[in-house]
């Protein structure tokens, strides 16, 4: 799947929130004040890229995500780790610690989660 623009990501997150809906219901889940036509265009781009599918109900298109939020997170995080951290999750954690975005207590919880999964 193709990389998304910031606006496309925002629209996709809104679709995840709403589940499925028309352009107006998707816009209601967004913080941005973009015009209807801009959001409608962005939705069409997401459909072309394979992230959304549409169904005609009466004279309105209803849009839904073609991938789960979990699948998208996996793809997004994987690409960030690959592009910015030499494909090393250890480097990600190290970066977060240095930036004071993860506390020692949170790291202990992460270690416990990892040990549970073994």
From TrEMBL:
GO terms for molecular function: DNA binding. Keywords: DNA-binding, Transcription, Transcription regulation. The lineage of its organism: Bacteria, Pseudomonadati, Bacteroidota, Chitinophagia, Chitinophagales. Transmembrane segments: none annotated. Gene3D superfamilies: Penicillinase repressor domain (1.10.4040.10), Winged helix-like DNA-binding domain superfamily/Winged helix DNA-binding domain (1.10.10.10). Pfam families: Penicillinase_R. It comes from the Bacteria. InterPro entries: BlaI_family, WH-like_DNA-bd_sf, WH_DNA-bd_sf. Signal peptide: none annotated. Belongs to the BlaI transcriptional regulatory family. GO terms for biological process: negative regulation of DNA-templated transcription. SUPFAM superfamilies: Winged helix' DNA-binding domain. This is BlaI/MecI/CopY family transcriptional regulator.
């Amino acid at each position: 799947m193709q990389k998304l623009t910031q606006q496309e990501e925002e629209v996709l997150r809104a679709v995840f929130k709403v589940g499925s809906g028309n352009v107006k219901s998707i816009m209601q889940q967004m913080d941005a004040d973009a015009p209807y036509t801009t959001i409608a265009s962005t939705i069409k781009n997401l459909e072309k890229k394979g992230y959304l599918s549409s169904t005609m109900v009466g004279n309105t298109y209803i849009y839904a995500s073609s991938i789960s939020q979990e699948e998208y997170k996996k793809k997004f995080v994987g690409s960030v780790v690959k592009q910015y951290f030499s494909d090393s999750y250890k480097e990600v954690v190290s970066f977060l610690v240095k930036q004071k975005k993860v506390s020692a207590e949170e790291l202990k919880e992460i270690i416990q989660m990892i040990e549970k999964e073994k």
